Amino acid sequence: MFDVQKIRADFPILSREVNGKPLTYLDNGASAQKPQVVIDAITRAYSHEYANVHRGLHYLSNLATDHYESTRAKVARFLNAGHEDEILYTSGTTEGINLVSYAWGMENLRAGDEIVLSILEHHANIVPWHFLRERLGVVLTWVDCAPDGSLDPQAVIDAMGAKTKLVAVTQMSNVTGTRVDVKTICHAARERGIATLVDGSQAAVHGPVDVQDIGCDFYPITGHKLYGPSGSGAIYIRAERQAQMRPFMGGGDMIDTVGRETITWAKPPLKFEAGTPGIVQTIGFGVALDYLMGLGMDQIAAYEAGLAAYATERLATLNWLSVQGTTADKGAIFSFTMEGAHAHDISTVLDKRGVAVRAGSHCAMPLMEHLGQSATCRASFAMYNTRDEVDTLVSALELCRDLFG
Q: Which of the following CATH numbers is that of domain 39-294: 3.40.50.800, 3.40.640.10, 3.30.1490.20, 3.40.50.720?
């Protein structure tokens, strides 16, 4: 059985107070807290096992390399990749998408080629494509969501034209919690020979992912959202797409031979991993994935679905609160506004009650413009949050209403 209290005990920060109140941490969409096993792994790696990887033949280098490289197989298992060589280490989803933009996009796209995006995208899945718009002259084609925040996969498919070379879409919105039917989109794109990138930053945290079933070409994830260290992450790149890519950066580890006039590359994934990497961050990331897979992603998804349903029910009683995104199967992410109070003011009041939420545009300005909002508050829940914390949020929002109403 999923024991949330036992899980909470694994996260030392959850027992602290903020402003004299028990911490209610609801900013998980930005970054999740870390379990003790991850903290211990980081401490152990720096204290007793640290050396550079891939370079030395001595004991510590071999030990660090083994622990560092073991994460690759864990990511492959977590995403159900066909082979661990399809997993590239990154500092997170932002680097992963930029890698695709430079290493695949610059090599394979030309002026007039089209990239299809949804309005739900985070800036990390927008800005790198703007780079290609500016530098190559590619065209960005946008697909809007419905008023309830849902995204019709057929609308994305209909936007694919003769010049479409890439579809880049999130699996879960970081603003509305909307879940996107990326499998339908990716299978339709593959039938047309169109590459697909699915932003997995939010979705991968909340339930099982199977990239082979989805049928995507690129799937980036972020370690710090998956209860691992910041500066860690990975991207799945299907082997056929890797063959179409040039190296992202040049330096150590990504080469086979270097001469005065010639250079040959290492085989993937090292071909795309130049320089000394985030060794300890990646080791910690692997431990975080072990922790999640030990709990079971299906179990996490089921628990969070119940939590999301309860939060939806409780927030619906606040008829003066406007929630952005109301699809029935949305994830446990709630962005909201309150008449008469700016999102920053709401966040400040909640903080005084020990409730941590995010306020602003959430790195999704096109979506916020589409929703007609300049800023919202966002409460994003994780597997360690409880119904009591939902009640704490509601009570703090009622206090806001009293102050600003």
A: 3.40.640.10
